Amino acid sequence: MIRAEELMGALVDHAVTMVTGVPCSFLTPVINRAIGDPRVRYLAATQEGEAAAIAAGAWLGGGLGCVISQNSGLGNMVNPLTSLLHPAGIPALLLVTWRGEPGRPDEPQHGLMGRITPGLLDLMEVPHATLPADPEALSGAFAVATGELLRAGRPYAFVIPKGTVAAEPLNESALSRRTGRIVRHLPDGPAPSRWAALECLLSELPESAAVVSTTGMTSRELYEIADREQHFYLVGAMGSAGAVGLGVAAHTTRPVVVVDGDGALLMRLGGLATIGAYGGDNLVHVVLDNGVHDSTGGQRTLASTVDFVAAAAACGYRQLHDCTRPEAFRVAIGAALAGPGPSLVRLRTRPGSRSGLGRPAVTPAQVARRFRRFVTTAPTGGRVGADEVLGVVA
Q1: Where is 234: in which H helix or E strand?
Q2: Cα dihedral angle (273, 63, 89, 6), rounded to 10 degrees?
Q3: Cα gap 99→69, rounded to integer Å
Q4: What DSSP string runs through 115-139?
Q5: CA-CA distances (angstroms) from residue 220 to 216, 350, 352?
Q6: pTM
Q7: Tens-digit pLDDT profile for the chain (394 aa)?
Q8: For residues 341 and 319, is the Cβ–Cβ distance under 8 A?
Q9: Where would I find the beta strands (DSSP E) of 22-139?
Q10: Within a 13 Å sphere around the CA of 279, how many CA atoms are in the beta-carbon half?
């Protein structure tokens, strides 16, 4: 059996800067240690897939994320692992418990996942090993993991059987709920196109800002308008833009602007709580709400039944702006950038996109690496952030 302190030391020694995830009883010692360890930042996610996206953002921001999860949560991680981290070549460390391990009696809901956990990781092309229970074996096991992270530029998982980590006391303070200020910008008027909204947004952003854009037409239009090194286009993992932006913003003082859509935000609405709890002054969440899924033919979303601004306010966002006209949108973006944050700016846009719209010619891996270089490079050309261990994956 190993101590949680020894495991956390191995994580830190191998460049981990952030731990995020959802609890499991097998992981209780690890979580309790991470919460109180000043060497890493711990973020309690609302869902395992969200945690994987936060970890992706941590690497894009210059660090390395570690996702902790019960193996049942692998089901929630399949999408971001296979459609975000894999195509973009983003490394992350996974600590996955082995509930339902064959030969060890467990609750019935863990039986199937327990049998298929190693095979599921293999199918997702995530190299993995059983976390050693011998403290002297930790260093060698983590050396192998780091080698895989560097070589392949993809996640690596440690599977943790029951009883691997010794008990650790919990010393946790409650997070205080933050109060937000809602501004409803009037009067109403004709909704702009998404293209016009993106042009307006880019005209208001400082050159130092990093932009994370959601999947589909939003990223494609942003690419067509201006392909810049500080743009990270999500090509998959719909609904994960906010979580990625949160991971980035936690590792930089640069402004980080997330450009989301109504359908994408609804897919992982719990992420508002995570951003509201942990987001800082440098995080601006823009929601372009056209009420439809443009990329798949214009089917209606449920946005007409949801007040995104009120929901974000209830989750702890500090500034909230509801806009219907470009003029108000400009004012709102300026206020959001000035802080306090996190901020949310919702702009109603009209459905539709430009005909003949192309797709980014740069690969997701190229986009990820140039974005990381931008975020970790100071305006004067010097590096920010001390750890470059995992920043050179091809």
Answers
A1: none
A2: -90
A3: 11
A4: HHHHHHHHHTT--EEEPPSSHHHHH
A5: 6, 17, 13
A6: 0.94
A7: 999 999 999 999 999 999 999 988 888 999 999 998 999 999 999 999 999 999 999 999 999 999 999 999 999 999 999 999 999 999 999 999 999 999 998 899 999 999 999 999 999 999 999 999 999 999 999 999 999 998 888 999 999 999 999 988 888 777 778 889 999 998 778 899 999 999 999 999 999 999 999 999 999 999 999 999 999 999 999 999 999 999 999 999 999 999 999 999 999 999 999 999 999 999 999 999 998 898 888 899 999 999 999 999 999 999 999 999 999 999 999 999 998 999 999 999 999 888 888 889 999 999 999 999 999 997 644 544 434 444 433 3
A8: yes
A9: 41-44, 65-69, 93-97, 128-130
A10: 36
Q: Decide: residue 338, CB within 10 A, 0-12 exposed, 13-18 middle, 19+ buried.
A: exposed
- The alpha carbon of residue 212 and the mean position of all alpha carbons in its chain are separated, in whole angstroms, by 10
The H or E element that residue 63 is part of is none
Amino acid at 112: L
Q: Identify residue 345 by its one-letter amino acid code.
A: V
Placement of tokens 């959001």 in the chain? 336
Length of the chain in terms of residues written = 394
CA distance 77 to 82: 8
Per DSSP, the three-state class of 291 is: coil
Question: Of 329, 233, 349, which is closest to residue 288 (Cα–Cα)?
Answer: 349
Residues ≥6 apart with Cβ < 8 Å to 170:
28, 32, 35
Q: For residue 99, give the nearest of 139, 144, 69, 56 by alpha carbon.
A: 69
Quick one: CA dihedral 287, 291, 293, 297, positive or negative?
Answer: negative
